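Morning, I've got a small favour to ask if you have a moment. It would help a lot if you went through both lines with me. I owe you a coffee for this, so here goes:
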Amino acid sequence: MTRYVVFSHGKESGPWGTKIAALADVARDADWGVESIDYQGIDDPDARVAKLIAEGVAFGPRPVLVGSSMGGHVATAAATALNARALFLMAPAFDMPGYEHLTPAPNAAPVVIAHGWGDDIVPVEHSIGWARRYGATLHILNTDHRMQDQLAALGRLFRDLLAELAAQDA
């Protein structure tokens, strides 16, 4: 049975942006199947969650969900319905002003968050608070919201998560 990683992009990006493409290569190298959901033209987070759930069931049981910014929110909100095996979130859009009530709680899967100290879109304090509330692993990098200068670090963190999951399978 193929193990899958399913990516969810942010509000202003696309399904195969730089971060997703780099992490997809990491997943393929570790023998995971990859898919990225296209949310372009869908601004409503709830509609994105519904689309991820509807399309995500096709990728088999217990996918690893990866999300960036709004995609992190979407992946987390869909994790229970898809019985996600793990979450890898980059600058997740949690606790945003006016939308705090929409911030999802995680399922029982391990959660790894990477966030930038210099993020001016989603303040790093949001991930610090969320990680504290739910016991997520949090890596704070010296970068901004896009994290383009930290692709190697993100790749290492993601590779470590996939290796940990593979070791559980052995």
